């Protein structure tokens, strides 16, 4: 899989001993300085821009839409044909509504026309290759610039700051990273640059959850960055064992899965702190976050051009009505996504938050393809789909895939092969997924012709048949 030699990619792939030595040397510097001038400039921009008027946001968006459309038209054969078939040229875009004359695209568009959508060579030094699961059970593959983190991470930080987080504060992270045991046998790794403590989401056993909490108690004031389903698992563990709130955890940053009201209420009651959620996706089209006073999502107009559409393509403008999230991204200039249907849905609230005053599109009840499906490990603990989901080339030669489980600790991975599928692809799946499961779940691979979707036409990544325990 192609990965650019960016600072982020190099750092993340350093062996732990080298990372420890380098981290101690660099760790004396403030985190914003370590992250670089571009990060600092973007963070400052967003801290100010979040308070812009709606007119300021629209002027900025128009400029960005014109720029990405001109780039796509000039450099991409697909978009030249796409614009021409709509009778449109980038110079015709004088208002934001003009871009809506272009037909929407979806993941099939990207997968079928990827080579013709590129604006640069895939061999360029700054280009990363990305693949993700997502809607419809068909892996999405595309390319993106390696420097995206300097743009995207400031959006996350600016959102987290709304509930008190500051760069340099310790963060306990229980998400999708594969974490090796430390010298004490605890699945834990420390990033001395960001002050992040990573705990394995793949080893959420009764014993380890207790050890995670014991270790987090030692971090001082910190925030917990976690999948919503994992936050619920940890909260239920605390409830079972009558564990009081960890008062050094100042907030829960729950992302990458659907958030449900009853789940939020339970976690906040047990942890005794704010549960804060953000929305985003690998395609880098739409980003949104809650605010200090509301659990509704505030969509960032500076991140991409956001639309909410009915099934027949009409814009949703009435508060309380729902539609599909459609985005035109400003970050990815390697493969532009213009009017891309995400497969995620939300309810429109308005164009201003009455609680905080930000004049952003406000949405609620986001329901996406990252539903909280899980596998059951041999010890009875859960392995969430969000943690299993891969962003490498594991499923490159597969059209669809799904785990089926009816026995604890065992599963069947069903795959619908693509034309270039080979026997070595099965071995790669066994190796890559095996590293994540780490012996806690055995799985066989079964080649099938089709995999059924849900009634809503969405992928069911885990067909779970083990009865849930109360």
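Sequence proposed for the structure above (470 residues):
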């Amino acid at each position: 899989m192609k990965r650019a030699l960016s600072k982020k990619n190099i750092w993340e792939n350093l062996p732990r001993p080298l990372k420890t030595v380098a981290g101690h040397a660099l760790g004396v510097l403030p985190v914003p300085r370590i992250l670089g001038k571009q990060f600092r400039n973007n963070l400052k921009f967003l801290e100010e821009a979040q308070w812009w008027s709606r007119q300021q946001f629209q002027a900025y968006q128009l400029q960005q839409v014109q720029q990405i459309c001109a780039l796509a038209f000039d450099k991409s054969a697909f978009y030249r044909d796409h614009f021409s078939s709509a009778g449109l040229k980038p110079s015709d875009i004088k208002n934001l509504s003009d871009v809506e004359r272009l037909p929407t695209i979806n993941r099939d568009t990207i997968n079928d026309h990827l080579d013709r959508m590129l604006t640069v060579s895939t061999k360029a030094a700054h280009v990363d290759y990305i693949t993700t699961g997502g809607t419809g059970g068909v892996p999405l593959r595309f390319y993106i610039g390696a420097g995206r983190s300097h743009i995207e991470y400031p959006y996350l930080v600016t959102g987290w700051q709304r509930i008190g987080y500051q760069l340099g504060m310790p963060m306990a992270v229980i998400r999708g990273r594969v974490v090796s045991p430390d010298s004490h046998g605890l699945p834990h790794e420390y990033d001395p640059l960001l002050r992040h403590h990573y705990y394995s989401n793949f080893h959420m056993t009764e014993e380890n959850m207790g050890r995670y909490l014991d270790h987090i108690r030692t971090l001082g004031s910190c925030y917990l960055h976690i999948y919503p389903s994992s936050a619920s698992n940890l909260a239920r563990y605390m409830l079972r064992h009558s564990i009081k709130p960890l008062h050094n955890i100042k907030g829960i940053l729950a992302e990458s899965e659907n958030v449900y009201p009853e789940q939020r209420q339970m976690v906040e009651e047990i942890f005794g702190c704010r549960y804060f959620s953000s929305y985003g996706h690998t395609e880098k089209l739409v980003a949104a976050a809650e605010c200090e006073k509301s659990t509704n999502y505030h969509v960032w107009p500076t991140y991409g051009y956001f639309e909410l559409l009915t099934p027949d393509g009409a814009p949703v403008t009435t508060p309380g009505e729902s539609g599909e999230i459609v985005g035109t991204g400003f970050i990815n200039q390697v493969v532009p996504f213009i009017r891309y249907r995400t497969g995620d849905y939300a309810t429109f609230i308005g164009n201003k938050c009455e609680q905080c005053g930000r004049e952003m599109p406000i949405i609620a009840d986001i329901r996406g393809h990252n539903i909280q499906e899980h596998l059951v490990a041999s010890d009875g603990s859960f392995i969430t789909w969000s943690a299993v989901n891969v962003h490498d080339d594991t499923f490159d030669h597969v059209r669809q895939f799904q785990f089926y489980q009816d026995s604890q600790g065992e599963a069947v991975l069903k795959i619908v092969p693509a034309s270039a599928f080979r026997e070595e692809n099965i071995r790669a799946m066994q190796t890559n997924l095996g590293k994540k499961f780490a012996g806690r779940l055995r799985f066989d691979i079964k080649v099938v012709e089709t995999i059924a979707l849900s009634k809503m036409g969405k992928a069911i990544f885990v067909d779970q048949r083990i009865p849930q325990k109360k």
